[in-house]
Design goal:
389 residues, alpha/beta, FAD/NAD(P)-binding domain, 2 domains, four-stranded parallel beta sheet, 7 helices, disordered C terminus, binds flavin-adenine dinucleotide
Length: 389
Amino acid sequence: MTHVVIIGGGTAGLPTAYELAELARAGERITVVANRATFRSAAASAWITAQGSTEFDLAQNLRRRGIGFSAAGARRLHPERNQLELGDGQVLDYDYLVLAAGPRPAFEEIEGLGPHGGYTHSLCHADHLAGCVRDWNRFLADPGPVIVGAVQGASCFAPAYESAFLMEQELRARKLRERAPMTFVTAEPYIGHLGVGGIADSRARLEAALRERDIGWIAGARVERVERGTMHVSESGAGGKRHALAFRYSMMMPPFRGIEAVAGIEGLADARGFILIDRFLRNPKYRNIYAAGVTVASAAASATSVATEPHKSAYAIESMVSAVVRNIRDEIDGKRAGAGAEWNPVHLADLGASGLAFVAGPASLHPTHGVDAGDWVHLSRCSACDAGD
Ligand SMILES: Cc1cc2nc3c(=O)[nH]c(=O)nc-3n(C[C@H](O)[C@H](O)[C@H](O)COP(=O)(O)OP(=O)(O)OC[C@H]3O[C@@H](n4cnc5c(N)ncnc54)[C@H](O)[C@@H]3O)c2cc1C
C-alpha cells in the first residue's frame, strides 16, 4: 500500500494533498504532517489589522477528503530508511515524501531582529501577528519614525512594500502621518528588484510610489544590528555609508532558512536547509523525495551585492505542486517522472486604494514583462475591503 507523506499544511502542502487525493487509487494513503492545527495564508498578513481570522481547521478539511493528518510537526527526517520522526515521537514510514514546510525565519542571524527578544516585527508567521497588531495599536497612540523593509537573505520583498504602503495609508487616514517619518530599508540592490532582478519598470513604478508617499529608502542595505529604537544599517554602495536609524515601529522581513528537520542532511538540503531538486522537483539523491514551495533551493540565487533570495510566489508554487503531483502519480503507476514547473513570479502589491501587478516570464530568463496598475489589484488583494472604498 503506497503511502505519500507531505510535510507542511500551507500554500504548497495543502493543494499537493488535495490533488494527490483526487488521483489516488484504492488502498493508497496520504498523510499531511503540519506543525499547527490550522491553515493560515501568509499572503493575508499585511491586512491583519483590518481582517478577521482567515484560519481554518486542517484536520477537518483533510479527513473529509480521506487524508490523514498530524499536527505534531516533523522533528527529523531519516531519508536512508524512508522514515519521518514527528514531534510527538511517532515515526511514519513513507514511500514518497513531499517537503512543503515553507521557510523558517532566521531572526538569530541579525542581533536584535525579530519578535522573540528583538525589536522588529515580522509578518511571516501567524504567531508573529498578534505582537505586530498590539504594538501597532500602541504606536498609533504615540507615533514616531517607522522603518519597514527586508534584510539581507530575505526572499519575500513584495509584502515589505505592501506593508509600507498600507501603514502609510492608515497613518494618513488617522492624520498621524506628519508625526511618523517613514524609511524603507531593503537588501535589494535597487527599489523594485524584488529578488528577481526587477520586472519590467518595477523600479520606476515603486520608486515613484514611495516618492509620492514621502517614504525615504535605503537600498543595498545590510542591517548590522538592531537596538531598542535604533537600527544600524550599512550600504553596499555609497562607500559603505553607515546609518543609525531611529524608529518607534519596525517591520522587517527576515532571512529565511529551511526547517530543522532536514538541516545538515547531505545531498538533500543545501547549507541554508533548502531542498535540492532536479527539473522534476525531485531530490537527486533521495529520488522518492519531492519538494514544492519556498523550501525549494533556488537554482539561480541572484548575484546581488547584499545577499537576496529569489522569491517563489504562490503562482509559481501552484505550478510546482501540479508537477510534483503528476510525477508522483506517474511513478506510482510505473511511469517516469516528466513534469516540470513554471517559475514565473507574479506579484500583486496593494498600494492602499490602488495597486501594482507584476507578471514576469520565467525567472531564469530575466523577467521583463507585464506590469499593470489599478484599483483591481487593491480589491483582489484585500478581501476585507469594502468594494466601495
Ligand atoms: C507576509 C507575506 C505575504 C505574502 N504575499 C504573497 C502574495 O501576495 N502573493 C504571492 O504569490 N506570495 C506571497 N507570499 C509568499 C507566499 O505566501 C509564500 O511564498 C507561500 O505561502 C509559501 O508557501 P509554502 O507552502 O512554501 O510555505 P507556507 O505557506 O508557509 O507553508 C508551510 C507550512 O509548513 C508548516 N511547517 C513549518 N515547519 C514545519 C515542520 N517542522 N513540520 C511540519 N510542518 C511545518 C508551516 O506551519 C506551514 O503551514 C507572501 C509571503 C508572506 C510571508
